[in-house]
Amino acid sequence: AKQIFTLLIALFGMMYVLNIGTTFILSFISAGISFISGKGFDFGSVNPVSEILLNSNPGYLIAIAVLIGPMIEEIMFRKLLLPILEPFGGKAYIFMSAFLFSLFHGNLNQIPYAFVVGVVLGAVYWFTHDLRYTILLHIMLNFLGSGVSVLLLNFAPELAWVWTVAILVLMVAGIVIAARWWIRHKKELVFLPGAVYASRQDMLVNPGMISYMVLTGLIVIFTFFAY
Fold it and tell me: What's the predicted TM-score (pTM) here?
């Protein structure tokens, strides 16, 4: 339980820092595109996640984003991908499954932090082979990242400032915990090499992988310009 809680705080901190940084960068990119097109500096709304949180039914959003979504994603990107990517080795499985997981989110705001979250969840599943841990972490992370904000905005908006302060505290705590853990334990992470017959080219250059990356890439591009 202590390790789960520690991982949760570390993931939450990294997720929010990356989310804020990505939103900031994309705002300037959006303004640059707007300026080049002759519309002046329009920073616009470039975070589709915020739009969804503000405009969706809270019960439906929590059911999908906090409960159903994490379970489906963990089955897809951790459990089902393991036998496919395992021949390429532990590192390949963790980073490739995280990459595919991040693309699945379909927007530039979420891709950076979804990749980091995917790396951690992939590592947890690689070393434990127990989907209960990754599902529990994913559900709690999505609840903190989306569920709490939705509940406050709809039922107690006057307390939103409390959660804002809590987010700042958790961000700092999460980054500190993640940095300390990495410094102390990075040498303990040992991965066996993949099978002799498996090459990175086999993993990356195949019809399924190419189709997935093209499709999700197009969705990411469409989402960026749509918002």
Answer: 0.88
Rounded to whole angstroms, what are the CA distances from 51 to 29, 46, 47, 215, 226? Answer: 19, 9, 7, 23, 12
Angle between helices 2-36 and 111-128 (to 10 degrees): 150
DSSP string for 30-66: HHHHHHHTTS--------HHHHHHHHS-HHHHIIIII
SS3 assignment, position 227 = coil
Both structure tokens of 61: 């959003």
Q: What are the structure tokens assigned to 66, written together?
A: 């906090």
Which residues are within 8 A (CB) of 195 and not within 5 positions of it... i.e. 6 or more apart?
Answer: 87, 88
pLDDT at residue number 2 = 78
pLDDT digits (tens, 9 = 90+) for 148-180: 988 888 889 898 899 999 999 999 999 999 999
Q: Which residues of the chain fall short of a pLDDT of 50?
A: none
- Burial status of residue 50 (CB atoms within 10 A of its CB: 0-12, 13-18, 19 or more): middle
What is the C-alpha to C-alpha distance for residues 7 and 13, in angstroms, rounded to an integer?
10
Q: Whole-angstrom Cα distance, residue 117 to residue 114?
A: 5
193 in Cβ contact with 89 (< 8 Å): yes
Q: Are 141 and 73 in contact (CB under 8 A)?
A: no
Computed on alpha carbons and rounded to an integer, the radius of gyration of the chain in Å comes to 19
Q: Hey, CA dihedral for 118, 123, 129, 130, is it positive or negative?
A: negative
